[in-house]
Each structure stands twice: as structure tokens, then as C-alpha cells.
Amino acid sequence: MIRVPRDLFNAALSVSGNSYAPYSNFHVAAAVRDERGRVFAGVNVENSSYGLTMCAERVAVFNAVTQGARGIREVLVLALDSDEPVPPCGACLQVLSEFGDDDTVVYMVSWKSGRIDVRRLGELLPSKFRLKGRSME
Ligand code: ZN
How many Å lie between the centroid of ligand 1 and the Cα of residue 26? Predict the structure, then answer.
């Protein structure tokens, strides 16, 4: 049986009711753990101009960075409306790669089914963009 860190799960769950998703009705909450063990949460925030929508994962990362975090060790994505766990989107994976590394753990949880998937960031985004192309070496 796969387990997820309780504090990450609780952090995501505690803000999940604040997810603002009136257009997609796809509510997501996320939590990240920084290099000092601190936990930060976020929810997706949609906009009537769809392109301005921000995912829960990036809100959580930006919240962490705002508080001084510079390393992301763990990520939990809590999908409220999906029967399947959902991975971070490509944009979120790239942002996570800025502060995490290939070993950063990504926990994906479906609230509806209880299904859990666990991957490493390097598995989800094996060829991340880097200035100077370092990831392609
Ligand atoms: Zn995303």
C-alpha cells in the first residue's frame, strides 16, 4: 500500500475548498516541502480569460519561494474531481524542476477514488529546459 506524507496531504486538503475552478470544475490543491522541511500549499485559480489560469502546483511553489524556499523536495497533488491521480502539467513540471531535482518526489492523489501514484520528478520530466542546455548533456 502506498502512503503519502500526512503533513503534505493535510496541507493540501486544508486549502482544497478554496480552489477557484468555476469554468472547468476541476478542483486541485497541492502542497510542497522545501529544503528546510517547511510545507506550503496552493490551489488552482482559474480566470474567465482561460490562459491566465494558474495551477495549484505553481501556486504552492510560488508561495514557498515567496517565503524564502529555494529547494523543493516533495510535491503532493490532490485532485478533487478525478477518479485517477493527475500529474503536474508540463508548465508545472518545468517550474518544479527550477527548484527540485530528479529525485524530488511527486505524490499524486485522487480524492474521489483514493488512488495514489508516486513518481520522481526526473521520471515525469526527463529533459527539462535549462539555460545553456545542461539537461541535455
Ligand atoms: Zn500545471
Answer: 12
Calculate the average pLDDT of the chain.
Answer: 95
Distance of CA 89 from the midpoint of ligand 1 (Å): 4
Q: Taking 80 as the threshold, does the pLDDT of residue 29 lie above it?
A: yes
How far, in Å, from the CA of 91 to the mean position of ligand 1? 5
Domain residues for the domain of 33 are: 6-124
* Residue 135 maps to a domain: no
Reply yes or no on whether 57 is catalytic: yes
Q: Residue 96: which CATH number?
A: 3.40.140.10
Model pLDDT for residues 54-104, shown as the tens digit of each residue: 999 999 999 999 999 999 999 999 999 999 999 999 999 999 999 999 999
In a domain, 97, yes or no: yes
**What's the gap in Å between 125 CA and the centre of ligand 1?**
13
Q: Would the pTM count as exceeding 0.85?
A: yes
Is-contact 51 43, C-beta < 8 A? no
Residue 14 lies in a domain: yes
Give the count of domains, the chain.
Answer: 1
Provide DSSP, 83-128. Answer: SS--PPPHHHHHHHHHH--TT-EEEEEETTT--EEEEEHHHH-SS-
The active-site residue out of 57, 74, 84, 137 is: 57
